[in-house]
Write a structure and sequence with these properties.
Radius of gyration: 21 Å
Largest sheet: 4 strands, antiparallel
Helix content: over 70%
């Protein structure tokens, strides 16, 4: 356990530059937005800018993992030759990435709420903003886990065929994307995911079905919000399988 905490601290120090750059970027964006809003007399420009930068946080964890794992490729054998398992090495970076994402997302949302305090219904915004924020984080985790999966496969084939490993990854990505698309349009997928419905009586009114990539919920015309436990369990199992396979590949095929 002590070795794992040491790895967490090491990954934090490796990734802190990304956190600092993100915070500086948000501050600069706020200052530039304020200047442009005052100079050109454009109302709610800053509010609009901050609303726009919240959604791209879907890719924050993926970007963090990409940068962090790329740093390790320069000293790959040193990174792998530790008493920690492949799962522990990956989860250490994952936890630090989540912390960095939470910091950036909290700053962006706080500024947006502050700027829009007198313009929007804060009670509704907080209630349904929380639902959207949860799904944004879930989708960010989903994307990052797929990236880890492809990254470990790339490292495996890179040892075998060098730079041609990219061809394997591109082909695999196309094949898996096609397969997942077929699955999501099948009756089997509906059977696996549309069970355990939970309905909120105070959902947004007069909205139609919504879909956020692989993470979705339904808003009925009468304003009731419906989510399915089966949907989240299905993708939880998928993510566990991807992480298990990636960890196994690091321990059994890449490290040796």
């Amino acid at each position: 356990m002590q070795a794992f905490w040491g790895q967490l601290k090491k990954d934090f120090y490796l990734g802190r530059s990304m956190i600092i750059i993100t915070i500086i970027g948000l501050i600069v964006l706020f200052m530039v937005g304020q200047f442009l809003e005052l100079y050109f007399n454009i109302e709610r420009l800053v509010t609009g800018l901050w609303a726009m930068i919240i959604a791209p946080h879907i890719f924050y964890l993926w970007a963090y993992m990409a940068v962090s794992l790329n740093v390790e490729t320069n000293k790959f054998h040193l990174w792998l030759h530790t008493p920690l398992s492949g799962f522990q090495l990956l989860i250490s970076k994952f936890i630090n990435g989540l912390v960095a994402m939470v910091i950036s997302f909290a700053i962006a949302c706080s500024v947006f709420l502050w700027m829009s305090f007198q313009e929007l219904n804060q009670a509704i915004l907080l209630q349904y903003g929380f639902i959207l924020a949860v799904h944004l984080f879930l989708f960010a985790i989903y994307i990052a886990i797929w990236f880890i999966f492809y990254w470990t496969i790339f490292q495996y084939f890179k040892k075998k065929i060098g730079s041609f490993a990219w061809l394997i990854i591109i082909g695999l990505f196309i094949a898996i994307s096609w397969g997942m698309g077929k699955l999501r349009s099948s009756a089997l997928y509906d059977t696996l995911t549309t069970w355990g419905s939970m309905t909120s009586q105070k959902a947004m009114e007069n909205l139609v079905d919504s879909n956020i990539g692989a993470l979705s919920f339904q808003v009925q015309p009468n304003g009731e919000l419906t989510v399915y436990a089966g949907f989240y369990i299905f993708y939880l199992i998928l993510c566990v399988i991807l992480i298990w396979f990636s960890s196994w590949l690091l321990d059994k095929k890449i490290e040796v």
